[in-house]
Amino acid sequence: MKIFASRTPYRSRRRRRLALKEGSRYTLLMVLAVLFLAPFLWLVSIALKTQSQLAIFPILFWPSQADWQNFVQALTLVPFWNYAANSVILAMIYAVLTTFSSALVGFGFARLKGRGKRLWFVVLLSTMMLPQIVTLIPTYVLFARLNLVNTYWPWALWGVGASPFLVFLYRQFFAAIPIDLEEAAILDGCGYGQIFWRIFLPLSLPVIVTAFLLSFVWVWGDYVTPTLLLSQDNTTLAVAISASYVDPNNDPLPNVQAAAALLYILPEIVVFFFAQRYFVRGIVTSGLKG
User: Fold this and answer.
1) Where are the domains of the chain?
2) Cβ atoms within 10 Å of 165's Cβ, excluding its own
């Protein structure tokens, strides 16, 4: 009885420490969630304000009366849907091609044998360290000499060339698949092309979804490349939102621009909400084996 009584305070203190630890973790997560959510809430606040409310000092965090007309103007002041269609076409071209090409390259690095394979894989990963600004001018000069400026062909060529990061994701996932499946398929007379299509690709649905979402968002949110390679007529929604919303005096309309930005990011939020299960699984399972 004395031993049991002496252990009871220790267990209660341990429970309190664990509860305090869990409480501090949840508090930290809530603080971080608020910090990450604050810019989005500020964007919503600006999108619902009138021009007069934007000029009020001190600054109002939330408008007293929402002005939903900003969203109507965001859709009517510029050909919003035409620019959105351009963005969807570009993003789909790149996402479909790079998802497939990255899967092929990742399969080769994971399952095929060849001299210098590790060296080439290191070279591939090292290209991710190059900032975009370094290759910006050479890229423009290259496509200008090929007469591909003001066309969508650059995105198709980038898609065919695969993405180093997505190749890494596929390679990690394919390397974690047991070799017994591959050996059994070879014994049944399958070549590596059939192994890729019939076994590895169907098993990699989470990585496929992850690769497609990442590549789609990369193009959908890109501002620099369309500004450099496309004209005003066939440019994307990101470029149009940044400079097209002005009043008759050519003064910017930040509330209408914020409303357009909300409409711009809404598809990404909806798609990620429905596909987050596959997205998280694809990221996690791609790091199981080096």
Assistant:
1) 2-47, 78-285
2) 17
